[in-house]
Amino acid sequence: MPALLPISTTELQTKALTYFQENYDAHTGLIRDRARNFETTPSSGIYKMASIAATGFGLAVLSHAAASGLMNRDDAYDMVERTLTTVDEKLEKHAGWLYHFVEIDTGNRYSDSEISTIDTSWFLAGALYAAAVFPNTGVARLADKLYEAVDFDNMRTDGGLAPTKGTLSLGWLPEFGYLASEWDEYAEHLLLYVLGLGKLQNPLPETSWAAWKRDPMDDIDGVKILGGKQPLFIHQYSLVFMDLRGKRDAFTNYFENSSQASRFAREHCLSNGKNYLTYEKGFWGLSAGDSPDGYEAFAPGYENGTVCPDCALASSIFLPSILDDLSIWNQNPQTLIGKYGFSDSLNLDREWVDTDVIGITVGMLYLAIADIQGDASYSPWALLTKLPAVQRGLKRAGFHE
Fold first, then answer.
1. In CATH, what number does 9-396 get?
2. Are 144 and 201 in contact (CB under 8 A)?
3. Which among 44, 240, 246, 374 would be 20 to 30 A from 254, CA to CA?
4. Where are the domains of the chain?
5. Strand, coil or helix: what is 312?
6. Torsion, Cα of 379, 383, 386, 391 (10° steps)
7. pLDDT tens profile 107-116
8. pTM value > 0.85
């Protein structure tokens, strides 16, 4: 196979932006969950599915592109406003919470999808970031309206059935009610709780922040790390939106913790080349995504040689030198980089490269680059973290310098 021309971070952002422009429904403003990276994406089957999380990441990407000049500001504004209007007026909700997956052209529930607390939080993050980019506008008013409409305590108390419960349910199904699983141990939910704590009306009680477990920690070479052997996305999603550098609560410094976890995740793969050809060639990135055998969430100790390029590079929010790994990724087969950037995943042991990209993963890499490169004044870290709601949430969670 011919060698690749090196791809820069600017080109990766441009390709990522193209994903959200081309997989945006012009009628509803919803964004496709996944798309083909090398050919035309079908409009049927799984490709008809929009993700409310990908839509939230898309709102953030489009807004940042407007602020940075990568996209015409008026065009980006119109796209964001259309999305928020659709979600406000047309999407079915439960206590303000949104379905994880909906039909891209109608907004109707997709298949047996659940109302999802975490995926709603990614939508809210994108909407509130858009409000900060476009202050004192219809976009800002819609974003605030949608945020205030979400009843966090409803998901904490299972609609009032469990008033003393401390943690949030993962979601709700119209057929069965509240899901039994809870956000009750370390995972990607930091921003979800901060947004709940930061509400002006009916916020989560302060005790909810301490209600989820922080141990047992993973012992890695004598260092205790929360989620040290978990998939990379666990550490990335909340912290690409909130700047927690130099901040800690009563338990830990989450940014430093995730930096340690990212360093270990990289070293784990690169020191185990004898086990997988993928690692031997210098590739790493154990996280959630496609594999030759279907969608999986890989982590140190649960792996088959499949890695996610964007997931690895997005850890640059913790360790900026990780972007130097682009020199490794650029040695991949020509089929790894398509119109939207790197394909979601590859497995050299199985001679397999994904044909798809996944919206939240593409968006995560764009926002990671936005946080650590370019003008910091309008990055997600800068604008979202300064929002009064986020500041209230962080204060009520006990964060301090």
1. 1.50.10.140
2. no
3. 374
4. 9-396
5. helix
6. -90
7. 999 999 999 9
8. yes
